[in-house]
Write a structure and sequence with these properties.
binds zinc ion, mainly beta, 507 residues
Length: 507
C-alpha cells in the first residue's frame, strides 16, 4: 500500500491567508479631557470695486488684511469696476482630541473613553468604582456622578455615538469609541458633603478610582454574549467573575480624585484663610456686595522650594556665565531668545539676559536666586481673565512675560482689586514655576505683582484697590505722579507699578 505524505505548499498558503474572526473587543477604558483645535478653509471671493473703495477699505469689509486682497488689473491705481480677489479664512469646525487624564478634582467635568473593536452601535455600560479603600463610596462600590445634570451610577453610551451632531472634522477617529462626559460630583448637598468627608478622612486625601465596563445589552443587534468579547482589562482580586473587564486608567495608575480648596474673595477687601495642605488645585470665588457668588477660576497649586531674594549683577557688556551648571537643565526663553536660565547642583538658579536698567544705564543683568530651606505654595495664574460679575468685570491679561505664577493669596487679592475697579489690567506677572522672577530680584515665590500703568486717575483708583486688599508696599516710577500709598521705585518703575508686601485681611 502506497503511503501518501501531505506537505504544505508555501505558495498556496501565501495566496490564501487564514480567515480572521471579527474578534469583538473592549481594548481600553480611561478618563480624559477634551481638547479642540479650530479648522479653517480658505475661499477666494471676487469683489467688484465700487466708487470710493480702496484696497484697505475692501480688506476691512471682509475683515482680512490688505495682503489678502489681490488686484487683477495692471494699471497704476485701483479702478472702479475692477475685480479683486479676496482670500477669506472660514471656520469649518473643530478637530477634537482626547488626552488621558490621571487626576481631577471634585466637581470637574471629565470624559470617560471606552475604546472598542467591532462593537459598532452596541451599548457600553460603565461603572466608576472606588478602589483601594472607602472614600467616595465603599471599596469596590460604584460612585454616583452626574451626566447631563442627571444622577447616574450605571453610565450608558453607544459606541460611535459621540459628536454626531457637532461639526467635528475628525469624527471617524471616534467611531469605535464610547465617549461620555460626566461631572465628578453627586447632586444633593448631603451627598456632596459625604464625598468631602470621605476625602478628609482618607489618609492620602485622595480617592483612587477605576472603571468597570460591560457590553451586553439585551437588545443587542448581533445577539452576542459577553463572554465572546475580549476584554483587555484585568480581573479584580478574589473576583468570582472570569471576565477581565476592570480597567485602571493605565497600567498601575489609578484615576485620582482630590478636593479643590476654595479661597473666597469679598468685596470689602477681605479673603478667607484656607489651609492648602494636600490640595492640588485652588478655586477662586468672588463674593459681591449683593451676596452673589461668582466662580472666577481654578488654578493648579504647586509646592516649590522657597527662593531667597535674588542678587543682581548689572553690566554694560555681556556676562560670562560661570561653569558648574547642569547643562541638561538650561532653559532658553520663548519670549526672549537672549535670556537663559542655569541650574546648579546646590539648587541655585541664575538667569541672565539683556535688560536695560535706566537707573544704572546698563544693558545686561544676571540674577542669582539661591534655594531656601522652606517650601512655598504658588498657583499657575490663568492665561487671562475676563469674567462678568454683575455690572462689573474682572479682567486682566499678561504682557510678554514668563512670570505666570503667583502666591495663592496674592492672586486672590489681585482678583479682589480687579473686581473693585473693573478695568482691563495688563500684568507683568509675579514669578516663574520655580519661584524665580527675572529680571526682578524681589518677586520671588510670587510675592509681588507688576501691572502696566493706566491714566493717572484710574491708576490711583487701582492703587487704592490693591492697598485695600492688603498690598502695602507699592512702587511707582520716579517720573510718575506721586500717587498716594506708593513710594519711589526709581526709573525702573516708570513703565509699571510694583505691588508687594502683601498682608491679607482675613474674613
Ligand atoms: Zn515688581
Amino acid at each position: 500500500m502506497p503511503i501518501v505524505y501531505l506537505t504544505e505548499d508555501p505558495s498556496v498558503r501565501a495566496s490564501c491567508p487564514p480567515l480572521k474572526p471579527r474578534q469583538q473587543e473592549v481594548s481600553k477604558a480611561y478618563f480624559a479631557k477634551r481638547e479642540e483645535k479650530a479648522q479653517y478653509k480658505t475661499i477666494i471671493k471676487d469683489h467688484v470695486t465700487a466708487k470710493g473703495e480702496t484696497l484697505s477699505k475692501i480688506a476691512n469689509k471682509y475683515k482680512v488684511s490688505v495682503k489678502d486682497v489681490k488686484r487683477t488689473k495692471n494699471t497704476k491705481y485701483l479702478q472702479v469696476g475692477e475685480t479683486v480677489k479676496v482670500t477669506i479664512k472660514e471656520k469649518k469646525g473643530v478637530e477634537v482630541k482626547f488626552v488621558k487624564l490621571n487626576k481631577a478634582t471634585i466637581g470637574e467635568d471629565v470624559y470617560i473613553i471606552v475604546e472598542t473593536k467591532h462593537l459598532e452601535e452596541e451599548t457600553v455600560l460603565i461603572n466608576i468604582l472606588q478602589g483601594q479603600e472607602d472614600v467616595l463610596a465603599k471599596k469596590d462600590a460604584p460612585l454616583t456622578v452626574q451626566q447631563d445634570s442627571q444622577e447616574v451610577t450605571k453610565i450608558q453610551e453607544k459606541v460611535g455615538n459621540y459628536c454626531k451632531e457637532e461639526e467635528v472634522s475628525n469624527k471617524d477617529d471616534f467611531k469605535d469609541w464610547a465617549i461620555v462626559k460626566v461631572k465628578l460630583q453627586p447632586k444633593t448637598a448631603a451627598d456632596q458633603k459625604a464625598w468631602n468627608n470621605g476625602l478628609e478622612c482618607a489618609g492620602t486625601k485622595k480617592a483612587m478610582l477605576f472603571l468597570l465596563v460591560d457590553v451586553h445589552s439585551e437588545n443587542s443587534i448581533s445577539n452576542f454574549k459577553s463572554e465572546y468579547i475580549l476584554y483587555k482589562g484585568y480581573k479584580k482580586e478574589k473576583d468570582d467573575s472570569t471576565i477581565p473587564n476592570h480597567f485602571l486608567n493605565e497600567e498601575g495608575t489609578w484615576f485620582e480624585v482630590t478636593n479643590s480648596k476654595t479661597i473666597h474673595i469679598y468685596h470689602d477687601g477681605t479673603i478667607s484663610k484656607v489651609d492648602l495642605k494636600n490640595a492640588e488645585k485652588v478655586s477662586y470665588v468672588y463674593n459681591a456686595e449683593n451676596d452673589k457668588e461668582y466662580n472666577i477660576c481654578t488654578c493648579d497649586l504647586l509646592e516649590i522650594d522657597e527662593r531667597l531674594k535674588g542678587v543682581s549683577d548689572d553690566k554694560k557688556i555681556e556676562h560670562e556665565v560661570k561653569v558648574g551648571f547642569d547643562k541638561n537643565k538650561t532653559v532658553v526663553y520663548d519670549h526672549d531668545s537672549s535670556r537663559k536660565k542655569y541650574t546648579y547642583s546646590d539648587g541655585t538658579i541664575r538667569t541672565y539676559g539683556k535688560f536695560y536698567n535706566p537707573d544704572k544705564k546698563t544693558n545686561y543683568r544676571l540674577v542669582t536666586y539661591k534655594k531656601g530651606s522652606n517650601k512655598k505654595f504658588i498657583v499657575k495664574m490663568p492665561s487671562s481673565l475676563n469674567k462678568n460679575i454683575g455690572d462689573n468685570s474682572i479682567s486682566f491679561s499678561f504682557t510678554r512675560t514668563a512670570r505666570r505664577y503667583c502666591g495663592p493669596e496674592h492672586l486672590a487679592c489681585f482678583i479682589g482689586a480687579l473686581a473693585e475697579v473693573g478695568y482691563s489690567i495688563k500684568s507683568g506677572g509675579a514669578c516663574e514655576e520655580d519661584g524665580t522672577s527675572y529680571p526682578s530680584i524681589s518677586h520671588i515665590n510670587g510675592q509681588s505683582v507688576d501691572t502696566s500703568y493706566l491714566d493717572d486717575i484710574m491708576e490711583q483708583k487701582f492703587i487704592n484697590a490693591m492697598h485695600k486688599f492688603g498690598f502695602l508696599s507699592q512702587l511707582r516710577g520716579s517720573g510718575k505722579k506721586v500717587f498716594s500709598h506708593t513710594s519711589d521705585g526709581g526709573k525702573l518703575h516708570n513703565n509699571h507699578l510694583h505691588s508687594g508686601g502683601l498682608s491679607p485681611n482675613y474674613k
